[in-house]
Amino acid sequence: MRAGNVLHLYRVRLRARLPQELFALAGIAAGVALLFAAEVSSSSLQASVSELSRGIVGGASLQMVARDQRGFPESALARVRRIPGVRVAAPLLEVGANAIGPRGSASIQLIGADESLSALGGRLVRDTQLAPFGGIGAVVLPAPLARHLGVTRFGQELTLQLAGRTATAPLYAQLSERRIGGLASAPVAIAPLFFVQEMAGAGARVSRILVRPAPGRQASVRAALTRLAAGHVNVESTTYEERLFAQAATASNRSSELFAAISALVGFLFAFNAMLLTVPQRRRLVVELRRDGYAPGAVIAVL
Q: pLDDT per residue over 256-287, tens digit each?
């Protein structure tokens, strides 16, 4: 049987059984949509965390990480930089904050760093000016976040609530999507390290020190960092946060997989019920085709 004949028969059937066909189509579409939504929501969140982490750490592969929000003394940075095989060591102070502007507010991650962070090549900070200008601190915001807050002009101030304190910070620059890609949607703000330390009342303390070892010196640098930490600070790879998030999201991922399976089952049941509604008509069609002399292969093609 030619394909054109099969298509003609389907059109005839579609006119006669339109509600059943739409019922099956709706079931399949709903099942596929729910399955797709469940899978994408889970994977996209993990991808966003990974992209943000890589956008900050750049070429660093090791880090010293504080065990609590108080951080550890910034004086450790000089000792890390003296370790043989360390090419770049960049300090970070990360503080959760609530940013308030003329148009709205948002929960953000405030990142304090110095100009050495740009040397790591992370996309988020590659072209960001982190050196203090005359001792005056300012913040850099992704452009979508700046528009949401209503802080879009150089020098325009936003209010930051962090660590039980309230501070104001002027806008230095915006990071457009053309410069940082998908990281433009990240709820982060970047400022010079001394400015974040001052606003958070953290003193000369940092949350992390990112380290890029020289080629072939990974193991020796890690051993030296472990000796320097002396059990008071964690020494981890820069993928540590990604692994932590993946582990924390395990329960959510399992529930998403279950929801995806249920969604697929719902779509299957819709289509199956639509088929059941037409079983008597299909049976009669098979009988008529066989009486008219159609071969089994032609009957299957029609069905």
A: 778 777 877 877 787 787 777 777 877 888 88
210 DSSP β-pair partners: 63, 90
Between helix 3-16 and helix 18-57 the angle, nearest 10°, is 110
The model carries a pTM of: 0.69
Q: Are 98 and 107 in contact (CB under 8 A)?
A: yes
Contacts with 197 (C-beta within 8 Å, 6 or more apart), sequence order = 93, 112, 203, 204, 205
Residues 6+ apart with CB under 8 A from 198: 137
Could you give the CA distance from residue 165 to residue 135 in angstroms, rounded to a whole number?
A: 21
For 153-200, what is each residue's pLDDT tens digit?
988 999 999 988 999 999 988 888 888 777 788 889 999 999 999 999
Strands (E), 56-176: 62-65, 72-73, 86-100, 105-113, 139-142, 157-162, 165-175
Taking the C-alpha atoms of residue 34 and residue 26, their distance in angstroms, rounded to an integer, is: 12
CA 287 to chain centre: 57
Q: Give the CA radius of gyration of the chain.
A: 30
